TrEMBL record:
Keywords: Signal. This is Glutaminyl-tRNA synthetase. It comes from the Bacteria. Residues 1-19 form the signal peptide. InterPro entries: DUF5117, DUF5118, EcxA_zinc-bd, Zn_MMP-like_bac. Residues 23-36 have a biased composition (Low complexity). Residues 48-95 form the DUF5118 domain. Residues 23-49 are annotated as: Disordered. Residues 427-736 form the EcxA zinc-binding domain. Residues 105-297 form the DUF5117 domain. SUPFAM superfamilies: Metalloproteases ('zincins'), catalytic domain (SSF55486).
Length: 859
């Protein structure tokens, strides 16, 4: 999981203020005649006071990047003269949030800042690096003038030290909203209340200062989105929320690392700026990748240890049984770094003792920490902090929430339980759970090394290889740890595959991407001189599809750009195999989850997880409809970027869905399971899954793509009319044949009409995906004329229901058909049909880098 602008270290509890013994100023000696000396006149307005009058004997002082003094409730910075005017990086991170707020560890803001002394004031400025230009070009001065540094705050100089360092009182910097440094969005607040905000504690280190503050906000009232307050009803009570925010002010490297220019064919986080000094006939957006500074001890050696390895320290709060697996998960990346020429580049160590490193403090940005957080949230994430001038990663903490164990347990059972005997009994053994923890750590470590998610990867291996033991041992079932491809649910019991091969591992894409981003190119002295070599490396993707990264604008419909997928090069075949395994797993659940003397919580949870797993797999099939295969290409790579799925592929996908989810899956109604559940639960889960698939198939973006494919291919395309005809045949099979309709199918048939109604009458929604147009047009998509087709289908269905109702002899059957007729007619009647708000797509248009482990298991 990771955001484009990374965050710093997480601290869940306020730590005590650690101070050196304060230095007391000597008391003035009494006069010889016993008369008290005359106090010096007060300083003129705006003039600094005597040092000892500001930094009194009560001050708690720490020495580091700045001297930090805490005098009662006031916080002072004493800024060395050599740091005045120097660029620093300030990062704000939410470290504690109220229940129901955004996640802990969220990056609030990050800016390059400086403290600038002018006369008796210190100005706190935000420094902009958005525009760049070759300093030798005439435009350089204009570029600099177009991004004037912003003065965010002005502090009066309270005192001067003996060496002339200004002392300023900085509490308001951390207890008010300064520039974009606000946690308002974390809690959906309307305003901040400084009177209920305060500095909690501060620490200073050799290269950074950390200040922890508590911010209190007034929150928006609880209302239903889109609905005005009810007349005559009392206003909802005012609400508040407090957020703990950690501010880190970091000294940037004296000499920036040479940046490496980004190539969108390889998935790195990066930093963006506009280059006005380019020889091209327009301003050019330049992106640089985020990566650690790795330099060889022996530059001439093909394989050398780095001057400074990348080290993660394992939180001492981590349960001891998982520590070896966390180390294993981190150091798994070394095989990739060896391909880039570095030995033992990535390391994991326990917290050092005072004897080993007397300066160690997990809040110091010089140390990257893997933290174990006692939270019921099932998640983990790996943010990073980087130098905006060069992309150099300076710090990258990894956070593991305790309940990631529960999520991994549920996923492994529902994906691998049919072929791994260890996953057929609760609790899972520690060796298995340890390997699952290591897998999570390796993925999060990837983010902390600079890598983005690569959802395309799971569809790039030849499908037939994913049950081949030799292939799985050499290549794995997915080419990268950075996909949301979990455990190999295609393997069948008869394949007799070693269970160790079911868990993703470092793959060929990971090795390729590490080499591309980290391997030195010694002959290049500038980022531009590296481009030819980097382009040659990137073109290896042509011959080896599994080295490819997600295509930009893949949300336009790449059917291989799925989350939680294995083998989606052929999602129908993959889901067929996955369904066979789920049928086995559901039968296992009673024996596995029903324990003497315990309630049925585990059974209910795993049954829900089974529905969730199956629904996700069905979603991979739905993605084929209106879908494209894609490969990101640059100018010297011939051929199309997007290739549509064939008409036969799409028709096969809809037929599969009709047979699997629209036809009642009786295997999900296993008596030994359902007799322990609420009577309605299985049928509700079925209807929810059916609605999910229907909404996916009739999603406005999907029907727009079907129309686009029809424009290009005519009758050779799978059209919206073909989709509706296939859905009619699969959903109204009994109506067409005159057979009796059972209650579960009656639910589905009504749900389909409701979905057609929503598709016809919902607000027009966005014109095109934002990635295509860059804007959202409120008048709807001018390319989508499928409303006419949907309207025609509803009218045809109404006529069908009317005719069948007349001939129906069974009272229940007749009433059902008449109800269907009325629902269809109301949907097309403008006097009756409401103008519904735009429907939400069941699929994400993009992937959050914040949340790597979304729990979609419960349906």
């Amino acid at each position: 999981m990771r955001p484009m602008l990374p965050a710093l270290a997480l601290a869940l509890a306020a730590l005590p203020f650690h101070a050196e013994a304060p230095t007391q100023a000597p008391a003035p000696a009494p006069a010889a005649n016993g008369v008290k000396p005359t106090p010096p006149p007060p300083p003129a307005d705006g003039e600094p006071k005597p040092y000892e009058k500001v930094i009194t004997s009560e001050a708690k002082t720490q020495t580091g990047l700045f001297k930090v003094h805490q005098v009662k409730s006031k916080l002072y910075f004493e800024i060395p003269k050599d740091l005045l005017g120097k660029e620093l990086l300030m990062v704000a991170t939410a470290t504690e949030v109220p229940v129901g707020a955004d996640h802990v560890g969220k990056n609030v803001n990050e800016d390059v800042v400086r403290f600038l002394l002018k006369e008796n004031k210190v100005y706190f400025q935000a420094v902009n690096h958005a525009f760049v230009s070759d300093p030798s070009r005439p435009i350089a001065s204009a570029v600099e003038a177009s991004q004037r540094d912003i003065v965010l705050l002005a502090f009066p100089v309270e005192a001067l030290s003996k060496d002339g360092a200004p002392v300023i009182e900085v509490s308001k910097l951390f207890t008010s909203e300064v520039g974009d440094f606000t946690a308002r969005q974390v809690v959906n607040a309307t305003s901040m209340d400084p009177s209920r905000s305060f500095v909690d504690h501060a620490k200073t280190f050799a290269g950074s200062v950390r200040v922890d503050a508590v911010h209190t906000y007034s929150l928006a009232p609880h209302t239903i989105p889109g609905l005005p307050p009810m007349p005559g009803q009392p206003q909802p009570p005012a609400r508040s929320g407090s957020v703990s925010v950690a501010y880190d002010i970091v000294r940037l490297p004296e000499k920036p690392m040479m940046a490496r220019l980004m190539d969108d064919r390889i998935g790195y986080f990066g930093l963006s700026r506009v280059d006005f000094g380019s020889p091209e006939h327009e301003s050019k957006r330049e992106n640089i990748i985020a990566r650690w500074r790795l330099e060889k001890k022996n530059p001439s050696a093909a394989l050398s240890e780095p001057v400074k390895p990348i080290v993660w320290y394992i939180d001492k709060a981590t349960p001891s049984q998982w520590v070896p697996y966390i180390k294993k998960g981190v150091e798994a990346w070394n095989v990739a770094f060896e391909a880039a020429g570095f030995k033992n580049a990535v390391q994991a160590r326990p917290f050092p003792t005072k004897e080993e490193d007397p300066e160690f403090d997990p809040e110091d940005v010089r140390y990257s920490v893997i933290r174990w957080v006692p939270s019921p949230i099932a998640n983990a994430y790996g943010p990073h902090l980087s130098d905006p001038r060069s992309g150099e990663i300076l710090n990258a903490d990894i956070v593991m929430y305790h309940n990631i164990l529960q999520l991994q347990r549920d996923w492994y059972i529902t994906q691998a339980g049919a072929v791994d005997p260890r996953a057929q009994k609760l609790p899972l053994p520690d060796d298995l759970m340890g390997d699952l923890v290591a897998y999570v750590v390796t993925h999060e470590c990837g983010h902390s090394l600079g890598f983005r998610h690569n959802m395309k990867s799971s569809s790039l291996y030849p499908f037939e290889k994913l049950r081949d033991g030799k292939w799985l041992k050499e290549m794995g079932h997915v080419a990268t740890l950075m996909d949301y491809s979990r455990f190999n649910y295609l393997v069948q019991p008869e394949d007799k595959i070693d269970p160790a091969l079911l868990i993703p591992k470092i793959g060929p894409y990971d090795i390729f991407a590490v080499k591309w981003g980290y391997a030195p190119i010694p002959e290049a002295k500038t980022p531009e001189e590296e481009k030819a070599t980097l382009n040659a490396w990137a073109k290896e993707q042509d011959a080896k599809p599994w080295l490819r990264f997600s295509t930009p604008k893949a949300e336009l419909g790449d059917y291989g750009e799925n989350t939680e997928a294995v083998g989606d090069a052929d999602a129908v075949a993959a889901t067929t195999l996955g369904t066979k395994n789920l049928q086995r797993i559901v039968k296992m659940l009673p024996k596995m989850a029903i324990q003497p003397g315990q309630d049925d919580h585990a059974l209910e949870e795993l049954y829900g997880a089974s529905w969730g797993q199956w629904t996700r797999e069905l979603g991979h099939v739905a993605a084929i409809v209106g879908g494209y295969d894609s490969q990101n290409k640059h100018g010297d790579q011939p051929g199309a970027v997007f290739t549509p799925a064939t008409k036969a592929q799409q028709a096969k996908a809809v037929k599969f869905l009709s047979e699997q989810i629209f036809k009642t899956p009786t295997w999900m109604f296993e008596t030994a399971v359902t007799e322990r559940l609420s009577p309605m639960e299985p049928s509700v889960k079925l209807l929810n899954a059916q609605r999910y698939v229907l909404r996916a198939l009739l999603d406005r973006a999907r029907t727009t793509r079907l129309q686009t494919q029809e424009i290009a291919a005519g009758d050779k395309a799978y059209r919206v009319a073909d989709l509706l005809a296939d859905l009619r045949a699969g959903i109204y099979t009994e109506v067409l044949s005159g057979a009796k309709v059972d209650p579960l199918r009656r639910n589905l048939q009504r749900a389909y009409l409701a979905q057609l109604d929503e598709r016809l009458n919902a607000g027009t929604g966005p014109a095109l995906p934002a990635a295509f147009t860059g804007v959202t047009m409120p008048f709807g998509n001018p390319m989508d004329d499928t409303r006419a087709t949907v309207r025609g289908e509803l009218k045809a269905l109404a006529a069908l229901f009317s005719a069948k109702a007349t001939a129906a002899a069974d009272r229940t059957q007749k009433a059902h058909l008449e109800d269907l007729r009325d629902l269809a007619l109301k949907a097309v009647d403008p006097k009756v049909a409401p103008n519904l708000p735009p429907a939400m797509s069941p699929f994400r248009s993009g992937f959050s880098e914040d949340n790597c482990w979304p729990d979609f298991t419960q349906q």
